[in-house]
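Encode chain A's predicted structure.
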Amino acid sequence: MPVDLNPPEKHEGKPVERSDLPAGRTPEEVAYHFGISPRRVRQMARELGACRIFGNRMFLLPADVETLLEAAKPKPKPVYQRRGHSADLAELLALRKQMEREEAARKKK
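Encoded structure for chain A:
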């Protein structure tokens, strides 16, 4: 079977699409779609290892884009557990008794 050594033709600067190739996107395409900086997309992709790099070219597969989106989700704030109202009430009653004792001790003087 002969092998075609000629590079694929480019049409108006767009890569040739083939059904057997992955649906990769450039960081610029992803950034434009989401309205963010291509530089930030490249930085996050490198940090997370969610990209493919050949020489000085980077492209992102759909799974890589999902990884970037998941990493960009805001982290939920921790929920502070409030103590029950009965514990707060018990503390207030104990504090009130202590203040009454201190007030009574001052009046005796």
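Residues 27-73+85-108 form one domain.
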